[in-house]
Amino acid sequence: MKTTIKSIAVALAFCAAAFLTVSAIIESTAPDGSEKYIMRDYNGRIAVFVYGEDEPQEVFDVFTSSLPRGEAERVYKGITVEGDEALQKLIEDFTG
Predict the structure, then answer these.
(1) Residue 49, exposed/middle/buried by CB under 10 A (0-12, 13-18, 19+)?
(2) Residue 3 and residue 30: Cα distance in Å, rounded?
(3) What is the DSSP letter of 71?
(4) Cα–Cα distance between 28 and 51 in angstroms, integer?
(5) d(CA 76, CA 65)
(6) What is the pLDDT of residue 42?
(7) What does each C-alpha distance from 12 to 1, 9, 22 come to in angstroms?
(8) Residue 7: which pLDDT band, with cuts at 50, 70 and 90?
(9) Distance (Å, rounded) from C-alpha 51 to C-alpha 27?
(10) Pick the residue with more confidence: 96 or 78?
């Protein structure tokens, strides 16, 4: 009986871990399967993150405080884009 309970507990833990992993993958991708990104401030500079990640994928030599006020506010809030093409356009818009 104790072995059965342990087996069920291990199976439930495995299912929960699998569910959380799949949920994180789904959250970071757009409906069409492309990657989602967020551009936001990181230590005073513009940075790009894969959606849901804590560490930036790339940090740019552009100080957020040097942007026009409205653009800086957008970056502080975070700008979400879907797909590599949209990300490249956004990067070009902010880095020149």
Answers:
(1) buried
(2) 42
(3) H
(4) 5
(5) 10
(6) 98
(7) 17, 5, 15
(8) low
(9) 8
(10) 78
